[in-house]
Amino acid sequence: MQVALGAAFAGVTMPLIAIVRFLTTLVSLIILGVMIYLAWTWYDGEVVRRANGDILRVREYWRLYWAIGLAAFSFLGKIVLAPLLAGPDRGEPSKADRGQGQTIPGPNGSMLYVEELGLRSGPTLILTHGWSMDSTIWHYAKRDLGQRFRVIVWDLPGLGLSKGPVSLENFAASLGTVIEWSGAAKVVLAGHSIGGMTIQTLARDNPLLFSQRVAGAALFNTTYINPLKTMILPRFMQAIRWPILEPVFRLTILLQPLAWLSAWHSYLSGMTHVANRVGFGKYVTRSQLNHVSLLSTRNPPGEIAKGNLAMFRWDARGALAKVDVPVLLIAGEMDIVTKPVASDQIAAQTVRRAAVQRVEGANHMGMLECAAQYNAALAAFAMQVQPPTNPAI
What we know:
single chain, 8-stranded mixed β-sheet, two-stranded antiparallel ribbon, disordered N terminus, transmembrane, transmembrane helix, AB_hydrolase_fold, AB_hydrolase_1
């Protein structure tokens, strides 16, 4: 049970999906346990004495057949479940590979992995991914925006190829390092989920840098406060924080190797895909669902748990009121992880009334399932706040 808890609550984006993943991981482990029980009872059999005195071991082969079937599902279930949970691919690559990147020193002993691509003479976009993901999640943005912009993506400390302390404050300071590393006089920031929280933390903690170097900020499916307060069932989520969520996340940190093993088993069985499906709307494809499920399994469960704990203690209300910078907010109409009302609240707190766009049919992972709409809105916003110096671009 402890291993199930650790794996379930570690590889997730937000606590809501954590609860779903706990249930699906538990189902996955129950299936594995039943498989082991059936295989053992088949092998052990039943000792029977014949009338002539001979002793035979009788085995019921239906137990073996069921054990084989459950073993196949336990380690190959995602092959069956993924097509049932998501639509067919729409020409996207089945694997999102990394580009040419490098590692740079960051604050507090961090080492930050960054990639630079696209048109070097164009406006500079810096993209910050969501929690339990890494910069490969931006493969649509790199493809769609690279022809007109200089695009920089990076891994948050603790995830992907970056190392360092896991906290919103260190994430923000690391983003400041990436801005400085870019060498651009002005940049446009875009962040999804905790990436948007990181941008707001930078505005809160370093408003001078933000005002001087940021031409505009685009926040995707994010919030301005402890996410337990802006997802569905907020009272329930806050009620289980101390008795359930906090202890389980801390247990995950202590039992990371076991949690990782359980997480990989859940991924292979397809139960991770079932849990992560909660974060998508009606447009999700199989490759998108598998990519998110793989990243949430591959990243260290202990580091992910630390990030979830950090979110519980985070508050950036009014952060964007400290800086006079244009802001674009994009929310999924179906987002249950960071409800669209959170974007409305952020817009109300900015110096200038920020633009809010809601994408129909999109959930928390809208920047994947509705990538064309998100990227088009980001491109238009970037061209507005940071027009290229070359009119031909």
